Structure to design on (396 residues):
């Protein structure tokens, strides 16, 4: 069989190959998150202690999420501390905002999988970092509003997002008790489990057990091996997913997809939210967009509303779990939801503001295409150096 014949696979067979590659991609992301979490979980747990300054809280939210590779884990920790009375809810709000920024590191790392192809890398890196820029914009707008409406930088009283969340929580559950602690079910996140997430988790756990003799107490070398394996899996799957997508999606299908998203950004927001609820991870949703953007199937501007939908969707499962037991867990979950809804409602309808993250991401991507060190510097400074500096400078 010639290489030309091998390239002419039946569309249904190519779709099966795409789904298998996609599953392998998700497993690789899960393994990468587990390896980073194994190194940073203990460090992350100690970051929350003794934080009262809102800017330190923002930095802690970013860094903790980077270390545990999950905004859900960060939020669950914050909920537990608020419920136990060790952290006031007003201090927790900037941490939740920081978690929104920290969670976008995953798709930025995924974009590095296209580093060998200039055009693909430029599109992929822009597609990943526009999520970063939008989340930074949202925090830049809403953190000052929350601080001003809370009576200043001391955060002694709740701001507008906190008060709105309290009112909404009391509307959803008139009998809610905001004087007690958060129940274990909220912290542990007992809720509906996505079958996709279960399947990915099972295979990732199986591979993890092969690499590590004791997954609960792994050695540093075992963690490094697992990280290398996961990163190699991400890069390999990305290469073949991109190639497969280009052949699977005809030009007409690409035009139809982009035309549908251009007609209404609400469609993209809804798609992003539903995808995130299905896989229970905004990082996975936004990471899936990277190869689509790199392959030219989805334009940057049309991918933006899907990214915003992922921001909203990642709060829904936590909110559903919190509704079961109420208390301050529901309030924190609602603050997260209201923050993402409000930032989308405020920024997206204004074209100049809506596409500012896209333009900034495109400019950064052009720099990284000329010199790959810009990409390394961007990830290191944005997600590690600045949060650590902010935490050390502002922490009491």
């Amino acid at each position: 069989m010639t290489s030309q014949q091998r390239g002419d696979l039946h569309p249904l067979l190519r779709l099966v190959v795409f789904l298998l590659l996609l599953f392998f991609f998700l497993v690789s992301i899960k393994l990468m998150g587990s390896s980073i979490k194994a190194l940073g979980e203990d460090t992350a747990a100690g970051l929350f202690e003794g934080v009262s300054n809102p800017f330190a809280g923002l930095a802690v939210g970013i860094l903790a999420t980077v270390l545990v590779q999950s905004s859900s884990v960060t939020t669950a920790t914050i909920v537990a501390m608020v419920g136990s009375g060790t952290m006031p809810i007003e201090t927790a709000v900037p941490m939740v905002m920081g978690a929104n920024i920290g969670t976008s590191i995953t798709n930025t790392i995924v974009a590095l999988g296209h580093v060998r192809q200039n055009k693909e890398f430029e599109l992929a890196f822009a597609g990943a970092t526009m999520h970063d820029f939008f989340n930074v914009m949202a925090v830049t707008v809403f953190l000052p509003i929350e601080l001003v409406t809370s009576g200043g930088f001391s955060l002694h009283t709740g701001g507008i997002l906190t008060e709105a969340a309290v009112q909404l929580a009391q509307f959803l559950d008139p009998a809610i008790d905001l004087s007690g602690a958060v129940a274990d079910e909220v912290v542990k996140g007992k809720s509906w489990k996505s079958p996709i997430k279960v399947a990915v988790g099972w295979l990732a756990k199986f591979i993890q057990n092969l690499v590590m003799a004791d997954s609960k107490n792994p050695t540093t070398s075992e963690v490094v091996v697992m990280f290398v394996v996961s990163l190699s899996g991400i890069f390999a799957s990305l290469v073949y997913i991109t190639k497969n997508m280009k052949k699977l999606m005809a030009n007409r299908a690409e035009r139809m997809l982009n035309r549908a998203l251009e007609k209404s950004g609400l469609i993209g927001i809804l798609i992003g939210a539903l995808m995130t609820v299905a896989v229970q991870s905004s990082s996975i949703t936004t990471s899936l967009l990277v190869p689509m953007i790199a392959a030219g199937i989805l334009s940057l501007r049309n991918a933006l509303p899907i990214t915003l939908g992922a921001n909203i969707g990642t709060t829904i499962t936590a909110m559903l779990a919190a509704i079961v037991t109420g208390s301050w867990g529901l309030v924190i979950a609602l603050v997260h939801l209201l923050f993402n809804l409000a930032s989308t409602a405020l920024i997206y309808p204004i074209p100049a503001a809506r596409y500012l993250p896209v333009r900034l991401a495109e400019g950064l991507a052009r720099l990284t295409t000329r010199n790959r060190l810009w990409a390394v510097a961007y990830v290191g400074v944005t997600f590690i150096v600045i949060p650590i500096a902010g935490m050390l400078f502002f922490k009491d």
In short: Confidence is low (pLDDT under 50) at residues 1-7, 152-156, 181-191. Residues 10-394 form one domain. The chain has one domain: 10-394. The two ends are 68 Å apart (CA to CA).
